[in-house]
Amino acid sequence: MEARKREGGGMARRVYWKGYLKLSLVTCRVSMTPAVTESAKLRFHNINAKTGNRVVSRYVDSVTGKPVDEDDQMRGYPQDEDNYVLFEEEELDEVALESTRTIDIERFVPAGSIDWIWYDSPHYLAPADKVSEEAFSVIREAMAKTGTAGISRLVLYRREHAVLLLARDRGMLAWTLRYGDEVRGGEEFFADAGKEAPSAKALTMMKKLIGERLDSWSPDLVQDPVEDRLHAIIKARKKAAKPAKPKKSEPPKRDNVIDIMTALRKSLASEKKSTAKD
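That's the Non-homologous end joining protein Ku sequence above. Prediction below.
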C-alpha cells in the first residue's frame, strides 16, 4: 500500500496527449493524461516451474504454427472464417478524423444529466502552456458557473470517442463515453425486481440504519485488501519466512427466511453498540 501512496506524491506529470481545445473561435493548447492508473498494481509473470525461467508469448501463424515477425503483421477485419479485410497501420492512422488533435466542443448539456453508466475512462485536461491559460480558464469557469458539461469527440486508442468535459478544480475532467450499443437497458433485467413498495416503518428503520453508517468519502474506503495481503506475503517470502495462512472466517449462520423488520432491529442495535464502543 505504501508503494501506491508514494506514486501520487511529487512525481512529474506524464502527458499522454497534446492538442487543442476549441469552442467556436476560442482555441487553446491543452495536454491530457489518464486520471487513473494501474501501474502500482502487482504484476505476475508466467514462470516455467521446471527451469524457473519466464514464459514469453509470441505471435504465431494459426495454421503453420511458425512465429510471425512484427514487420509481417497486419490488421484484419474478418469477413468469414478464413477471409479478412486487411489494413496497414498507416491506413488506420489516415482514417482518424480531425478529432485526433482537436477537442471541438459541439454542444453543452446539464452537468448531472448523463447517467454514470455511460462514463468510461477519466482523463485530466489542463492548459499546455502559459499563453493558453486565459482561454482555458474562461471556458472552464463558464462551464462551472452554468453547471454545464461540454460534449465533443476525440480519437483515443485508435477509435473516435464521444467525450464529456467537466470543470474540476483549476482544470477539467475529460470522460470518454461508452457507445450507444455498449450500454444495455435495465428495464428487462429489473422486471422481476418486484413492484411492491416497502412499508413506511421498514423504510424509516432502513434510513436510520444508513444514517448510522454514513461517513465522509475517503480513498481509504476503497483500498484493495487482497493487494495488501499479497504485498505482505511477498515481503515475508523475500525474508525466507513462511507466512502463516490467514484464518478463514466462517460466515454467520442464518435461516433461509429472515423477517426484514427483525433484521433491521438487530442491525440498528448492532450499529449503536459499535458506535458506543468507538
